[in-house]
Amino acid sequence: MDIDLSPEELAFRDEVRAFLAANLPSEIKDGAAASPTVFVEPDIGQRWNAILNEKGWLGYQWPVEVGGTGWTPVQRYIFEKECALAGAPNLTVLALKLVAPVIYTFGTPEQKAKYLPRILSGEDYWCQGFSEPGSGSDLASLQCRATLSEDGTHYRLNGSKIWTTHAHWSNKMFALVRTDTAGKKQAGISFLLVDMTQPGITVRPLLTLAGDHEVNQVFLEDVIVPVEDRVAEEGDGWKLAKFLLENERGGSCHSPKLAYDLTQIEEGAAQEPDGCGGTLAGDPEWKRRVARVRLGIQSLEMIELKILSEVAKGRAPGPQTSLCKLLASNLRQDVDLLAVDLYGPAGLQLDVARPLYGGNAPAPVHSKAAQVASARYLNSRAWTIFGGTNEVQSGIIARTVLGL
Ligand SMILES: Cc1cc2nc3c(=O)[nH]c(=O)nc-3n(C[C@H](O)[C@H](O)[C@H](O)COP(=O)(O)OP(=O)(O)OC[C@H]3O[C@@H](n4cnc5c(N)ncnc54)[C@H](O)[C@@H]3O)c2cc1C
Q: Does residue 2 surpass a pLDDT of 60?
């Protein structure tokens, strides 16, 4: 694996750097730094999306023919890395990286024309309706029922989805639903694009440990979906879900953001008195902990680059994405624990008034980084659960990567 950048790639990196230096507003950067959640709230995220869209870079993973950049996997990696190093917000993956590739890979020309431009323009905001009460890891057991009308024009949905991230801001949901109860459970699942603004949809908040309203339970009662909003054939939903989940687990490089956050923590430690006349950065035990996490991030980066080189050769990212998801989740929790420990009692503050940025943000004790440390730590407990739990990823790695 050759990890040196070519002269063209170095020039591209400089172009991205210059763009970020000139176009990433400080209030968006501050908002991202003060956000404890995985995805920033839409007031930050959608503003950043609009700036990238104006430049033509929002669909940075999409092919040119559907409004994307057509960048190579290496260019995408450079872009993600430079965004992380500049402190830009994480792009909300639900529309850009999850449903959009399903639509442009499996959708009809009408679906592509209808939905993809509205993702780029920000007119549509999407949530993911996969999990249900009782169907998380065992997703194929899902029960949300879609019944085809007698004239074959539309489905009628009844059931419930849970842990639905940002459903309270979404006007669209991509959902896995049961269209057939006979036969193998995977074969009776279809993939529908649901209009969230119609009657029959109730969104109920589920507050996280940190007090954030990020996830929801969504109730669907006689919700109508025209058949033209089904992606692929009836019963193809499981195939599309597997495609989408591979993108969810390995569609982004996590190591640059983790490395950036760890560097911020190291810089903080260099300012933090150790009570003995030095700083925390000089403490041997602290140094050992930081080095262990730094090595873990570097190992993750190597695996991410290996997957990238496979993708650059035209191969699918494959089940190794489970390895990335598992390592990134553990490292995210390690980094967030270091931040809590760095700030001592100030790192334990948990302000339930959200968001922590903007004019109404509460004044922080110690610093903004300290203020957000506990909320981040609590929020990142979810990393080892969403997108498939660590135990489920371990099972996939054992079976399909290690062949056990
Ligand atoms: C913050 C957050 C955001 C989320 N956002 C979304 C979203 O937007 N849309 C969406 O559809 N879902 C979302 N989810 C749901 C998430 O995908 C599920 O929580 C996850 O798949 C686990 O399912 P479960 O909660 O039903 O737990 P269960 O599947 O009931 O698992 C319970 C425990 O059993 C273990 N277990 C289960 N099966 C196995 C196995 N085969 N081998 C070993 N151990 C196993 C699990 O590891 C876990 O420890 C989100 C979850 C969280 C926490």
A: no
